[in-house]
Amino acid sequence: xxxxxARLSGVHTYTPEYILTNQELExxxxxxxxxxxERTGIKERRILKGEGLGTSHMATEAxxxxxxxxxxxxxxxxxxxxxxxxPDFVFPATANLICDAVGIRNAxxxxxxxxxxGFLYALSTASQFIxxxxxxxxxxxxxxxxxxxxxxxxxxxxxxxxxxxxxxxxEASEEPYGVLDFVLQSDGAGWVHLHQKAGGSRRPPNxxxxxxxxxxxxxxxxxxxxxxxxxxAEASGTIMERNQLRAEDIAWLVPHQANKRIIxxxxxxxxxxxxxxxxxxxxxxxxxxxxxxxCLHDYEPQLKRGQNLVLAAFGGGFTWGAVYLKWAxxxx
Length: 332
Ligand code: UT7
Known about the structure:
The protein is an alpha/beta fold and 332 residues long. It has helices spanning 22-28, 33-40, 55-69, 94-102, 118-131, 155-158, 207-211, 221-242, 260-270, 281-284, 291-299, and strands at 5-14, 18-21, 44-47, 79-83, 108-112, 137-145, 163-173, 178-186, 194-196, 217-219, 252-255, 308-315, 319-326. The strands form 4 sheets. Strands 1-7-6-4-5 form a 5-stranded mixed β-sheet, sandwiched between helices. Strands 8-13-12-11 form a 4-stranded mixed β-sheet, with helices on both faces. A two-stranded antiparallel sheet has the order 2-3.
């Protein structure tokens, strides 16, 4: 019996026009461009402005562009998975809204919530549906409007996050390209360090929760930083060992863009030089579920068929993981 592989055959993104610079943040909170640049690597981030526009707006644009670019008709898509931490609504799923806006009608769709690791969770899940022979074309989208849950009076968090969306197409193929392996993990004990205090069923929204600013990201930065460095290195190490990948076999590390110092530590642990590490945190900050597709899209012109990529992420939950992806095409 021939084996089926989940080939990644296209990537497209959407980022909002508005650019929030470090200089503008200097006017909002007690911070400096120097501190932000040295501690995180971020210079600017994109913010979605416009009444009534949520995460699905950005995701829809990314998916429309992806389908056009890959000559895929909406009717061909059998499943769409949206990884997001900032859904348009508590329910229904943002994935349902995206399908409706794009005209994907012969599919089912759902959201994945795994904070900053969500794109890797969704990509891995999608690849399993393809490898099992269940579906042939799946769209995976990572999108977040982080500005909707950021407190722009809190200097510890408002400097980090931005908005954006990225989508990829996975297709069934007999050639050994695409998602070849993945390592995923979670540890719920980590929730205390990174979460949103109110708005869920445990603490529903009311005047008190709003007054206490509990509808924003709460992060104990230093604790999260320590876990992120350890877990991203561990997951990337496991994926390398399991697939007998030496540093010289890897063309690119595609790390979640949370902090340049975390990215540098992961690359160092893997023995990779800086020129093999995708980096765009300076332009977009941490867009949560969109960071990895945004990287793939920015670097797409440099990617070559057959190159080995390791994708790695860490996020709230805690959640973390790494994916071994063999790139399937040369860009035109
Ligand atoms: O993507 C999901 C997972 N998230 C992450 O991976 C984020 C991980 N954490 C981080 O990236 C870093 O912890 C931060 C960038 C959030 C913070 O950097 P840090 O070097 O860990 O700073 P810190 O929180 O330990 O704070 C050090 C000092 C404190 O001052 P004192 O108490 O030493 O006087 C903070 O008040 O830096 C201060 N500080 C700031 N100063 C200027 C915190 N934020 C700022 C700021 N500007 N924006």
